[in-house]
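Lab meeting prep.
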Amino acid sequence: MKHKGLPLNGWLALDKPAGLTSTQALGRVRRLLGAAKAGHGGTLDPAATGILPLAFGEATKTVAYVMDADKEYSFTLRWGEQTSTDDAEGTVLASSPVRPTREQVLAALPDFIGNITQVPPAVSAIKVDGERAYDLVRAGETVELKARQVQVNEFTLIQMDNPDFASFHVACGKGTYIRALARDLAAKVGTLAHVTVLRRLRVGRFSMENAISLDSLEQKVQNTPAVSLLLPIETALDDIPALVITEQEAQRLRLGQRISLLQYDGRQRLLALPEAARAGDHPVVALCDGKAIALGNVAAGEFRAVRVLLQSTSNL
């Protein structure tokens, strides 16, 4: 979203409270900081809490890279009830008296680790014929979403002291729905379930270590310049292969020109990139003096910018 305001550039890792949509949380923070341009790096359910990366100014050009990042969650599910939304916000559709044992759950978890097939919840942000699935469901339409491949790196049982509830930790790739994991795990152990508590702990390099709550932010902005509350644009790009460039090369990129990597020094820098990046199959960030200048790809011995960052830090 773009409004009149301060030309802030950078990221803020918001610890989103329950009860706000991602868009509402972004709006609150943008108004608090007085920022001219802002966006968020991935939707978080209104009932969920935790890491919501918010981009300001030139950082909005890097949002896509954050949305592709790995994520971590903690969640609690309730056994024995299926809801219309696969979480506590929906109405109960069916119930089951079956309560799995700890041993049954532990035996089932390995089937949900790795590259797995998952059908997203009907109430999700996925678009169907140009409309968000959750909007169609709320309008009374029946939505059937296609199965998709997702990556789950870790699925750990944390606590199961109460027969009706169980808590887990998940580390996963983009597009993984925790509500679907809970639903499918329950089916695997012969019962039903829905998520009651969901908290996102990490999105790429954004974690609880560099997060700030909305309440804390409201207090800080009274005495702290907005720019000092932001993380550098480069925070979102730490996992992307980097090509170190000179100031002269940076100026060429800003003018829309390409950088040749065929000379000796260029070849050395080219060889330092991962094979996938050298082949043009992975994005590359061009850095000058530690600051992100552009995002692009390598092709035919050249670095070609896709996104040029006009300012890598706030100019306030």
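Slide two material, second protein:
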Amino acid sequence: MTKWSAGDIPDQSERTFLITGANSGLGLHCAQSLVARGARVLMACRSPERGEAAAAEVTETGDGKAELIVLDLTDPTSVRQAAQQARERTGDRLDVLINNAGVMATPLRRTADGFEWQLAANHLGHAALTWLLMPALRSSPGARVVSVSSFMHKRRGLDLADLNFERRGYKPWAAYSQSKIANLLFAFELDRRARAAGLDLVSVAAHPGYSNTQLTTNMVRARGSERIAEIIGLLGGLFAQPAQAGALPLLYAATAPGVTGGEFYGPDGFREIRGHPKLVQASKQANDPETAARLWQLTADLTKVKPDPA
């Protein structure tokens, strides 16, 4: 693979994307790059105010168009409403879904339904959204679903018997790692089931390496340390790659010709921390079909959303 960059994105006119967490960081840069190539981008954001401002900014900078869809991935009602709005606005035709939004290493917090916060925001909400959008994805030949994971998925394992940390002690990084393994398991299982169902759909995964986004500073801020968050932000600017570079593996997975289902893309530099997109390897557990099938069904039980494809 050559040193692929945003300038290599093919023309995206007449194509529609939905990106979660698109008002900042990786999602915002993906939206900007795609609109610059003529795409219509639905920016799914939790904050209406920040989302509207970001959509207006993105639209001004490209030939395509960006518009807001309000989405709170930790709220099942919001997920259903966002999926329904997306289907109505697009006439049930969506070319690419980029499941990008996420939180990282937060203190123990639970949703109104009792789910651990990182599991809900990073995995459960995205899985439910994907299933609910499948009718629109089925209508678009060659549709893609890109699930955003992390190289941190290799740090800890996935405990299917206690996904919500109800019996074991809660550890923020263990919960984050678990949610990122879940992203990969879901992406690979969706690809297997799409193939088995004969769907013209590609499900892939990507990770941004160590990128200078708000994830790290928000993590520290959530622990009540504004001053340390500022310092972490400065260090990120020195050592992390820019968010524009971190977005490249996501954009490659979403747009590059020749991408095949079940693949995983990340940076090509040392330990996949920075660099241009390349094929990377997921952990052994993330590649286990039996674990993926069990998580698929457990996710359906928890979200109360019918899996598609079944």
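Talking points for slide two:
The beta strands are 16-20, 40-45, 65-70, 96-99, 143-148, 201-206, 211-212, 241-242, 264-267, 277-279.
The chain has ten helices and ten strands.
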